[in-house]
Amino acid sequence: MLNDLLALMADGRFHSGERLGSQLGVSRAAIWKIISRLEKQGFPIQRVRGKGYRIPPNAVLLDLDRIQAALPDSMASDWGWHLAQQVDSTNAEAQRRLQLDGAKRIICLSEQQLAGRGRRGRVWASPFGQNIYISVAEPFEGGAQSLEGLSLVVGLALVESLESLGYRGCKLKWPNDVLLDGKKLAGILIELSGDLTSECLVVIGVGVNVLMRTSEIDQPWTSLLMSGQKKELDRNRLIAEFLSRLASALKLFKQNGFEPFMEPWEQRDAWRNQAVRVIAGNLVQEGISRGVTARGALRLVSTQGEAHINGGEVSLRLNNAT
Fold this sequence. Notes:
Layout: H1 2-9, H2 17-24, H3 28-40, E1 46-48, E2 52-54, H4 64-69, H5 73-78, E3 80-84, H6 90-101, E4 106-110, E5 132-140, H7 150-164, E6 170-173, E7 177-180, E8 183-194, E9 200-208, H8 235-256, H9 262-267, E10 275-280, E11 283-292, E12 298-302, E13 305-309, E14 315-318
Parallel strand pairs: 3-4
Antiparallel strand pairs: 1-2, 4-5, 5-9, 6-7, 7-8, 8-9, 10-11, 10-14, 11-12, 12-13
């Protein structure tokens, strides 16, 4: 019933509980209970006495049929698809599916994560039905060395997807964040399995804040809804656009590495030519960020010269930030 309810409200207009109940063949009290549960989970619902309830336009649940229908047939059939209402994390689910199914190319989606993870062990806020939580498993030849710059390529594909749907001002923060209005909008977590010297399997996890309005996150953050740009909020369409661009990007990346993506990535580099700190454990390096190399490493220029910082368990911060 939840899918049907949100579909009725997807026009972004006010709907009375009585009329919604009549359309779905249930009581107004039943509608109230569903709405209240969604509100408790943080879903963006507006109540106005005498008018009823309203949600943002196209704030519907995930639908694999709609996502696949927006992709070329050959692309949709290339992956094994899995959609859950709730998982610990989509990356963990993808790892389990790889072992259970024996497939090498899969997509895992979920409406909610109970133990969503970011880089460096951070918790990723994952409320029900509000954001995008997706993991893509992809085989790579050449081992870990062939993956240099991969997180940057994924971030670029995501930003280009958002741009194509009308969102402006999205920037990339090396090595794995997407910013909007200077705040974190999305993050990427890449995990490897298999033989790291030859063929390996890569699980690409992506989280995008779409409808979220409140959360206890320990850094400045935003969502597409909070940006106020009033563009596409249908997560199905956002996912389809991203997967289409990601598939093309991965094909090119496997053939040519990061170099073809270097220029467009630097055009969207949020912190280029700014004073930054690179933190790796107890090691802190300060300097000016001068973009990235053809292999995706950060170019850090200091009084000691230019250093190239590779990805991994490192943190990049503006030098005036705590």
